Amino acid sequence: MTATTQANPAAASHVRAVRTGRIIVWSAAAIIAFCLMFAPFLFPDVRAQQVAARICVFIVLAASYDLLIGYTGIVSFAHTMFFGFGAYGAAMALKSMGAGFDAIFLGGAAGVALAALLAVAIGVLSLRVKAIFFAMVTLAAASVMMVLASQLSDFTGGEDGIVYSAPKLFSPATKLLTDDNGKVLKILGVSMNGKVAAYYFVFLSCLLLFYALVRIVRSPLGTVLEAIRENELRAEAIGYRVVAYRTAVFVIAAIIAAIAGVIWAVWLKYTGPESTLSFAIMIDILLMVVIGGMGTMVGAVLGVVIMTLAQFYLKDVMAAAAEATSGLPLVPHLVDPDRWLLWLGILFILLVYFFPAGIAGTLMKKGGH
Amino acid sequence: MTTPSLESRDLTIRFGGHVAVNAVTCAFHPGELTVIVGPNGAGKTTWFNLMSGQLRPSGGAILKNGRDVTALAPSARAKAGMGRAFQLTNLFPKLSVLENIRLAVQARRQLGPRLFRPVSAFPQLVRKAEEHLAAARLEKVAHMPAAALPHGDQRKLEVALLLAMEPDIFMFDEPTAGMSVDEAPVILELIAAIKQDTSKTILLVEHKMDVVRALADRIVVLHNGELVADGPPDEVIALPIVREIYLGIPAEDAA
């Protein structure tokens, strides 16, 4: 390494830029991890809790999608379908068996198993064909599942979805810790009730899943996936069965997405087409991965946080801005909260323009496509 | 006669009406370095593609150690010990040089279902990759992405990938193409070193006559998709048809 840097000043400055970029990206990720770890104490209001839990679940969802699109170069539009399998599995079991961990486990396992089975079928049947056809097959499968979810209303609750209770441990009435008077104990002004347990259930399961994904991409298998993305023909020529690897990674990503769905269903206590299956979510995940940086894993974290915060808080920020500039001509109209989608669009265009390989990808000079 | 390590039996491929490789029959044996020559468009690379599995033949068969491998995918052939380097550099551009080589080392090793263990948990893989890296004199660029290498180094990496596969059969397709005079010897030394191991079979497409003379045990000539000559270097080079193909001298004048 030192020999290279001495010989080549351009390489040296490249190395320095990459090092700075890494520091920025990893510090941002560390701050996010810290905020999520202590979210119930740092951001105790209900809406912020909702945002924090959504960020946790979507980090797993986006990171597992990055395994497909960023690492292996597989374009799939069925990721929310697998997410939905897990969510509906848990939701239907919680509804019919009652609010227990056995229902989450059984229903979740059934949903995950179904997701894995369907992923194998789609993978074996269509990962041989060109990427564009594969993308179309996944789109078709996802559309069919969405229609089924809204039509089979006896099982799925149709468009309205399913409302159910989470296990008692996660109920706000549950006292996790009590003080001397038998009342719920407060730490830093936050009641130690079931809501905190529910958040940490989400946080820790998502952390575990994200860690598993990071381990996969750092393993020798991860390099093979990147090799398939980079040069499928050569990967095959040096002895890797590309179709088998693609199918395997498609199944792994489907399983992780389905487990994320189970977690999401438990947190939301509601599962419907709009919360799990919709194409709006699929597009969100795609944007999160692209904005964060494909083929980096940590990019998924940054992308999810930026998009989710923008979706939840841009309106508030704009309302404040409109308020503050109310004396000026034109400006308050431009930053009117009704125009938040316009500004979100501009934000995305700027991000893609200045970070063509995504934020993490550009800063660390790494990643796919 | 022992079983050939590699055999092309009546291999034929047609693209529409054009017959690119026409009933080529040829057997290769361990310890033998065969140079394949022929003008551009003679079908050398296509023939290689048929043997290493990138193309499916319209007819004929490929046998490795007497076993028919015609129906096997390229990856299965690679696992069976048939290795191939490409004429047009064919690397993993965004991966580092070391990762490129490690992939080739890794391909034939059974790592088992250890999905979650980092690369650093397999030091023997990395060590082996570093050996091949050093052999190809690429240590200084080990951590650079393959796409950032100068052409000569990319050619070396192309060959290093084949070496790192540790095959029984080496197929080199113009390994020194476009390399400078200072760089080409590195590759030729590598090939000469493989030749020391008499269990290996080497096939080499090459144009440079000095290379051919220095390395070849045998020369096979392809012309218009057909095998037109096969024999010891001195004899083949002296053949009128070879002179005609290479020098454009009509056979009767040369004779």
From TrEMBL, chain A:
Record's keyword annotation contains Plastid: no
TM ranges: 23-43, 55-83, 103-125, 132-152, 197-214, 243-267, 279-305, 341-364
Database matches in Pfam families: BPD_transp_2
GO cellular component terms, semicolon-separated: plasma membrane
Keywords of this entry: Cell membrane, Membrane, Transmembrane, Transmembrane helix
InterPro entries: ABC_transp_permease, LivM-like
Topology relative to the membrane: Multi-pass membrane protein
GO terms assigned for molecular function: branched-chain amino acid transmembrane transporter activity
Keyword Signal: no
Subcellular location as annotated: Cell membrane
Protein name: Branched-chain amino acid ABC transporter permease
Lineage per the UniProt record: Bacteria, Pseudomonadati, Pseudomonadota, Alphaproteobacteria, Hyphomicrobiales
UniProtKB/TrEMBL annotation, chain B:
Keyword annotations: ATP-binding, Nucleotide-binding, Transport
Ranges in a coiled coil: none
InterPro entries referenced in this protein's UniProt entry, alphabetically: AAA+_ATPase, ABC_AA/LPS_Transport, ABC_transporter-like_ATP-bd, P-loop_NTPase
GO molecular function term, any single one: ATP binding
Pfam family, one: ABC_tran
UniProt key word Transport: yes
Domain ABC transporter: 6-249
CC annotations in GO: plasma membrane
SUPFAM superfamilies: P-loop containing nucleoside triphosphate hydrolases
Taxonomy, superkingdom: Bacteria
Name of the protein in its database record: ABC transporter ATP-binding protein
Lineage: Bacteria, Pseudomonadati, Pseudomonadota, Alphaproteobacteria, Hyphomicrobiales
